[in-house]
């Protein structure tokens, strides 16, 4: 397949280059279940072929431990208006579905788990978003350990965070900078392994060169002026955040188990359970914005009437 050819080419490039291939960190973002959720179909002809393709890619890249070939795209929930608990729970359920299906194809759990990464949004609920990432690591480790891996290190949850789109505005769009900056800080404090700060104008146009430069500099500010990268776990031990983490973990686990009771992620998606839950939450959030229970600067709080 084309994706297998690309994975093979990338693996060969990493192994043959003038660097230590064991230190390379890279990814190929294959997510057939996410493709099904967004487009209503698998990226290849059928369900079985999609999982066979994932298996082949993992086997091709197994000698490059830092190359992850399977993505769990949780952004599709967060950007559709899901709550952070829903985004985490459905992402975990999607990840668990991959573990089940690929181990059923005969793959060792250590290889499958070590080839996965998660892509999650970060919203503007500052402390709750920090707690979401911390709760995610706790819950994912428990899920992977249920498959009895040989090495517990494969249960580590690798997360890429991207500033969310649901709360960004076309009007008075420079206020998006305030949201993306606090969101990026939440991601860093929560322990994201990599972060994308979307340009403030990304939701309504091809980002300008200035907007992209500002977005890059936002991360540099956090790194070089706040020194966030100098501390392994800045939020560790803080009573408030630890309490929030436990609360988010409990609620996300409850919803995760509900998905499993509905037959697992794929079955819950086919029956419309996941879509219904996200749609209802998005409706409630839209209403909260309309009645100012949820504030968005520049829209329902201190709007610029000249826009």
Oligomer type: single chain
Helix content: 40-55%
Classification by helices and strands: alpha/beta
Shape field: globular
Describe this structure in words.
The protein has 307 residues and is an alpha/beta fold. The protein has helices spanning 2-16, 32-39, 47-60, 75-78, 84-104, 109-114, 126-145, 176-190, 209-225, 239-261, 265-270, 273-290; strands at residues 26-27, 67-68, 70-73, 116-122, 159-163, 194-196. It has twelve helices and six strands. The strands form two sheets. It has a four-stranded parallel sheet with strand order 3-4-5-6. The mean pLDDT is 92.
Brief overview:
With 307 residues, the protein is α/β, with parallel strands linked by helices.
Question: Which helices and strands, and how do they pair?
Answer:
Layout lengths: L1 H15 L9 E2 L4 H8 L7 H14 L6 E2 L1 E4 L1 H4 L5 H21 L4 H6 L1 E7 L3 H20 L13 E5 L12 H15 L3 E3 L12 H17 L13 H23 L3 H6 L2 H18 L17
Parallel strand pairs: 1-2, 3-4, 4-5, 5-6
Keywords for this entry:
alpha/beta; globular; single chain; two-stranded parallel sheet
């Amino acid at each position: 397949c084309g994706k297998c050819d690309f994975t093979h080419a990338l693996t060969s490039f990493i192994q043959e280059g003038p660097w230590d291939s064991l230190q390379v960190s890279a990814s190929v973002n294959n997510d057939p279940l996410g493709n099904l959720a967004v487009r209503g179909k698998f990226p290849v002809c059928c369900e079985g072929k999609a999982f066979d393709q994932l298996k082949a890619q993992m086997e091709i890249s197994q000698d490059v431990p830092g190359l992850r070939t399977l993505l769990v795209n949780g952004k599709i929930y967060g950007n559709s208006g899901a709550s952070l608990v829903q985004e985490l729970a459905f992402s975990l359920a999607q990840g668990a579905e991959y573990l089940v299906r690929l181990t059923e194809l005969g793959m060792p759990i250590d290889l499958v788990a070590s080839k996965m990464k998660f892509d999650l949004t970060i919203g503007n609920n500052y402390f709750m978003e920090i707690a979401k990432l911390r709760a995610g690591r706790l819950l994912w480790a428990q899920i992977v350990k249920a498959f009895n891996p040989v090495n517990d290190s494969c249960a580590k949850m690798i997360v890429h965070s991207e500033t969310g789109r649901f709360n960004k505005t076309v009007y008075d769009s420079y206020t998006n900078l305030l949201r993306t900056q606090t969101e990026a800080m939440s991601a860093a404090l929560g322990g994201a392994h990599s972060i994308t700060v979307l340009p403030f104008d990304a939701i309504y146009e091809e980002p300008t060169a200035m907007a992209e430069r500002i977005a890059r500099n936002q991360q540099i500010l956090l790194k070089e002026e706040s020194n966030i990268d100098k501390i392994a776990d800045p939020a560790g031990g803080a009573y408030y955040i630890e309490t929030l983490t436990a609360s988010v973990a409990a609620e996300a686990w409850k919803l995760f188990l509900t998905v499993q009771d509905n037959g697992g992620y794929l079955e819950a998606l086919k029956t419309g359970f996941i879509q219904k839950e996200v749609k209802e939450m998005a409706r409630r959030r839209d209403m909260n914005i309309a009645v100012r229970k949820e504030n968005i600067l520049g829209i329902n709080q201190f709007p610029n009437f000249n826009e």
